[in-house]
Design brief:
heterodimer; A: 114 residues; mainly beta; B: mainly beta; 5-stranded mixed sheet; 4-stranded antiparallel sheet; 0% helix
């Protein structure tokens, strides 16, 4: 199993500013995944973050808007840059800690941009 | 990953079995059926997965049809705390660290 600590749990931000979300895992994992869940919608993958390499972004998401860091095997950050109200969502990190295991999710960061 | 189809919402009386269906008619031979649920304002939680045999754990049972084109998640004695959105996901694995592709899921409401 894996325990994921995600910070902050929620924030209200002004448009045009940036917010960095942290994801800390209690074990070493190769891949970490960042998802976005817009209000009333399902989860959409933003990017996959591997330690030691650049993140791989899904269609519709770009590094300039959502820069990701992965400095070691237990930690990652996602920054939401130059925010607009359309960025108001829940952002979640997820890991698959090993072979033959399921995915674990953090509790999410509820972001409101005003 | 194969696409899944789920009813948007279902109700279930507390204490009764909740049967949540999922269609995955394009599933490939090496793809598993996974179920996750998301209780309001929380991260998704793994429930169960299977390849072709029926599976049971402490949370639920998973019934997969012989042709593997559909499955049913069974919560044998639903409680109010089981109210959540339930996602049926088909993917390669386990052993694959690939990401999950979420559909729209089924909102299960357990009624007192």
């Amino acid at each position: 199993s894996a325990v994921i600590s995600q910070k902050p749990s929620r924030d209200i931000c002004q448009r045009g500013t940036s917010l960095t979300i942290q994801c800390q895992v209690d074990s070493q994992v190769t891949m970490m995944f960042w998802y976005r869940q817009q209000p009333g919608q399902s989860l959409t993958l933003i990017a996959t973050a591997n330690q030691g390499s650049e993140a791989t972004y899904e269609s519709g998401f770009v590094i300039d808007k959502f820069p990701i860091s992965r400095p070691n095997l237990t930690f990652s950050t996602l920054t939401v840059s130059n925010m607009s109200p359309e960025d108001s969502s829940i952002y979640l990190c997820s890991v698959v800690p090993g072979r033959n295991t399921e995915a674990f999710f953090g509790q999410g960061t509820r972001l409101t941009v005003v | 990953d194969a696409k899944t189809t789920q009813p948007p919402s279902m109700d279930c009386a507390e204490g009764r079995a909740a049967n949540l269906p999922c269609n995955h008619s394009t599933i490939s031979g090496n793809e598993y059926v996974y179920w996750y649920r998301q209780i309001h304002s929380q991260g998704p939680q793994y429930i169960i997965h299977g390849l072709k045999n029926n599976e049971t754990n402490e949370m639920a049972s998973l019934i997969i049809t012989e042709d593997r084109k559909s499955s049913t998640l069974i919560l044998p004695h639903a409680t109010l705390r089981d109210t959540a959105v339930y996602y049926c996901i088909v993917r390669v694995g386990p052993g694959s660290a690939r990401q999950l592709t979420f559909g729209s899921g089924t909102q299960l409401t357990v009624l007192p």
